[in-house]
């Protein structure tokens, strides 16, 4: 395994380069708590070098016709697919996630590149024509330039792909900083695709957010910063970007409500929550983590849900293919999730199953269902980002919607009902960028992903992402006959 690790180097201007500082960051295996890898501890000087390379490469990359850029994206998809098992193994080792989840991440990575490779060849816009007498208007789509990208630790490779694919498709170049906890697959990706890209088009600088991310969001030659991460990091980036009015693209946290009406198929809802609440150990921004169920069916739903959760297999992914839940990513995050669990139980919530850590080593937390959760409790408002689902009850639809929307987040939500009117009106009233009806956490490359309110702005995936990473220019020709 160690032999397959990427070198502990930044990837700048097409080459693996030593960091300016020579210092490293320990990357820890969350199953064993042992140091797995040393990543370069990037500095502002490393960022500046990478931004120079990205700036130098940008105009030639932008001039390539869509078919050429598309061919490169397809080649990247092929290369990732060829190394899917290696990338999944590295991702599982770094994050502790089960192989099933890691393989799904790699498949999502491949599909992001394939989708954007197709989409960039079929872009549409307003028809060219005369909208003012004797003036021909043409709308052009242009890349923005150099994009600074900052990614989180929950889906390290896939979150990088969700940014890299549309950014490159649209003709931009980029400098990406992976999470300090999970840089391995992003560096490996760069190593694997290095020969497919002109030098400087993709650059990776590892390091901490308040150093590397901070410099990226302040750098005068970076035209946009795209961050997936927490609300706090989003705010920091937006604040910096405001200085020179660079564009900002933010995919932040979530607290997805799952509104279960009295007429819902409760067994189906519980079965879906088994995945939607616990996939990737609940470290998922769209996780169905906050159930609001009609009081008349609450006991039945909890019974189904506890039955489902009791069948989840927790463990080290290397223990076997039946492992469905790994540890959480780091000691700091483990302490944070346990803090939420302990405070919720002190405040009156009851664990119908789980409720605490599992024996170590490793940052394992029992898959948990909390019931009797007081209205407005901390755990119903804040993002826990662990294997924890809370259950609250409501008496009527207005109350359900009011409480579902009364959080600072607005990323995703679901409604469970067999009533056509309800399925439409409740979905329309939920303040979230994605609302599922009788489903939860089903995504596709064609469909936009992104939030409202504190969950940020901008869209990943879909044609909307391609639009976000480009700008429109209106060119108007006066063709009046002057003779
Ligand atoms: P985080 O905000 O701690 O870190 C995300 C990235 O931001 C890391 O690379 C980090 O180094 C960097 N960062 C931290 N401070 C920064 C600063 N001042 N300037 C620039 N960059 C900075 O988030 P995390 O803990 O890695 O990830 C979990 C969070 O990400 C959760 O809130 C989750 O909901 C969110 N998330 C959202 C989506 C989505 O699509 N909306 C997807 C995945 C994760």
Write the topology of this structure.
Elements: E1 10-12, E2 15-17, E3 24-28, E4 35-40, H1 44-63, H2 66-82, H3 84-95, H4 99-119, E5 129-132, E6 135-143, E7 146-150, H5 156-169, E8 173-177, H6 184-193, E9 202-204, H7 209-218, E10 224-228, H8 231-244, E11 247-251, E12 256-260, H9 266-276, E13 288-294, H10 298-309, H11 331-346, E14 350-353, E15 368-371, H12 378-381, E16 388-394, H13 397-405, E17 409-410, E18 412-416, H14 420-429, E19 434-437, E20 452-453, H15 462-468, E21 470-478
Parallel strand pairs: 7-8, 7-10, 8-9, 10-11, 12-13, 12-18, 13-16, 15-16, 18-19
Antiparallel strand pairs: 1-2, 3-4, 5-6, 6-21, 14-15, 17-20
Helix pairs in contact: 1-7, 2-4, 3-4, 3-6, 4-5, 7-8, 9-10
Distinctive features:
binds nicotinamide-adenine-dinucleotide, 15 helices, 483 residues, Aldehyde Dehydrogenase, Chain A, domain 1, seven-stranded mixed sheet, five-stranded parallel sheet, alpha/beta, 21 strands, Aldehyde Dehydrogenase, Chain A, domain 2, globular
